[in-house]
Every structure is written in C-alpha cells, then in structure tokens.
Amino acid sequence: MEKYVEIYNAFGKDKPVEEQPQYHMNCAEVLLRSANERYDLNLPPESFRMLQGFGAGFYSEKTCGAFSGSLAALGALYTEERPSDQAKMTRAAKLLVEEFEKEFGSLDCDYIKKHHRDEVTACNPVKLRAGQVFDRVVAALEKE
C-alpha cells in the first residue's frame, strides 16, 4: 500500500501552490483509494466522495480518518452479499482496531496528531504507517 499512499499524498503537488488545496485528499480518502488500487477493489468514484466527512476525525479530531478509510476498505474486501456470515469482516474490524492501537497508541485523531504528525508533511507519515497496518491485517486474515 505504501506506493499508492505516496502517490495520493503527492496528488496535486505538481499544481501551483494556490491551487494545491483543491486537490488535497483527507486521510480516509487516501487509505480507501490506496486499498482500491492495491487490492483491485474496483470501487466507483462515489465511494471516495462519501469519505469527505471522515477527514480530521470527522472534523472534530475524533476517530482517525486513516482508520476510518482502512475500515471502509476492509468492508469492501470482506463483507459478503446478503444473506451472509459476517465472521470474516468481524475479525477484520477487530484486528484493525488492535493493530491500529498498537501502531499509534489510540484511534483518536487528536492523540495521533499530537504524537505522530509531522510538522512539515502533516499526516503523511500517519497515512503511510496506516497503509502498513492495513497490509498486515490483510496478510493475517489471508493466513486464517
């Protein structure tokens, strides 16, 4: 996922500085777009627009957007059509929570920003590490 996270972190950086905010993608969108590319989810464009409200911890510094985007991607990977047994998605969600908390010490945007955000590149390092967490979760689930 790292390769794709880096691509989306850099999206729009080739534009004039005053235009760059128009191309910014929040943490949730970057993680979902990256998983879409890496795992061939074939999600429609509307899927990414739905994650606008998840940036900056719901714009309230609550649950981290990188976590939310990752959870949405796991849903696309592991949620079955109805009727279904949701055991794999349940396991995926629990494992993501566990691994994300291990990596960052919390799921809260406020905490993560205080302890893991970079002064220059903002949450780019968080998104990269969240992508690594996502890959670890998928690898663990594929072994089961």
Protein model, in words:
It is a single chain. By secondary structure, the chain is mainly alpha-helical. The protein has one domain (2-143). It contains eight helices and no strands. It has helices at residues 2-9, 27-38, 46-49, 55-61, 65-78, 87-104, 109-116, 124-143.
Whole-number average pLDDT? 95
Give the N-to-C terminal Cα separation.
21 Å
Please, how many domains?
1
Main sheet attributes: strand count, strand direction, barrel closure: none
Uncertain residue ranges: none
Helix segment tally: 8
Number of strands: 0
Radius of gyration: 15 Å
Q: From N to C, what is the helix and strand string?
A: HHHHHHHH
Question: What structural category do the secondary elements indicate?
Answer: mainly alpha
What form results from the Cα inertia axes?
A: globular
Query: Residue share in helices?
Result: 55-70%
Please give the structural blueprint.
Elements: H1 2-9, H2 27-38, H3 46-49, H4 55-61, H5 65-78, H6 87-104, H7 109-116, H8 124-143
Gist?
By secondary structure, the protein is mainly alpha-helical. It has eight helices and no strands. About 65% of the residues lie in helices and about 0% in strands.
